[in-house]
Amino acid sequence: MIPLRVLSVLCSETGSETAKQAKPDAKRRRVMKVITSAKAIVVRACKYDGLLHRTWPAELVRQEGALILLDAKFPAEIVHDSLGTIAAGTHSLEYYWLDRWYNIFRFAEPNGDLRNYYCNVNVPPTFDGQTLTYVDLDMDILVREDFSYSLLDLEEFEANTVRYSYPAEVQANAQDAVNELLCMIRTRAFPFNI
What we know:
The protein is α+β, with helices and mostly antiparallel strands. Helices cover 22% and strands 41% of the residues. It is built from three helices and ten strands. It starts with 23 loop residues before the first helix and ends in a 7-residue tail after the last helix.
């Protein structure tokens, strides 16, 4: 078993991206304003062996430095093992960083209410302007509306560490990503403050 170094992390906001607090209406206007200038792209999530795991359409909202913000909607109702039933029209703002080992999805119900956040641990993505591709490293964090959270798929990470022979560097980066995400959740750092 690969131990997660979750308890050894000291949380601080030093060096982390934080968004200034704004009134809810101002936040919604800001997001909606940006979305009007979106460009259609494709997201590809692959496994470590390069095989395609999932793909979906999204719109590029903005790219600012290493941060890429995408907007997507679920076209049909789906049932997800960890998230339960996701209604058609559920909105997903997806935060990717080209230099980080995770991404964060902010799910909103079709009426706009926050549903939850979902964090994926992954190899930093690549983006060619039309396709964003990342390698899913199995571990996830489900963050509920009240900011309680659950670590998911740890057994799958351990099994795939053996199956795909994840190098020690990949294992360490994945563990560090979990630690960083937990600090961000606990301190409500960007984008958990939106």
